Amino acid sequence: QDPEPALDALADGVFAAGAGALWVHARKAWLEGLSPKENRDIPPLDYNRVYRLKAKNPNKFIGINGGIQSLEEALDHIDHADGAMLGRAAYHTPGILAGVD
């Protein structure tokens, strides 16, 4: 599946169904050949793909997730998306959230 048109079509459908926001993980999972654990690390993160989706949907809330390890990285992503999610970074180091306002 080509991620460019597939993600655009998915986003269009989500917003057409009435969702007010879309959070996008920047890593495309491989359905064959990798375990769930491997899918968390091996496929490359493609933040620019999420940024392009946001640029195509400037009036929709699109947040980014995937591999963000610090608040500084999150702030960098917010220059291109409406929000940034700290997943495993917050799970492994909950104190990181003490700096969030």
Supply the key terms.
single chain, 101 residues, alpha/beta, three-stranded parallel sheet
What does this structure look like?
With about 100 residues, this protein is α/β, with parallel strands linked by helices. The model has no long low-confidence stretch (mean pLDDT about 95). It is globular, with a radius of gyration of 14 Å. About 40% of the residues lie in helices and about 15% in strands. The chain is built from five helices and three strands; from the N terminus they run αβααβαβα. A three-stranded parallel β-sheet has the order 1-2-3.
Q: How far is the N terminus from the C terminus?
A: 38 Å
Average pLDDT rating:
94
Helix % is: 40-55%
Sequence of strands across the biggest β-sheet: 1-2-3
Overview in brief:
The protein is of the alpha/beta class and 101 residues long. The chain is 41% helix and 13% strand.
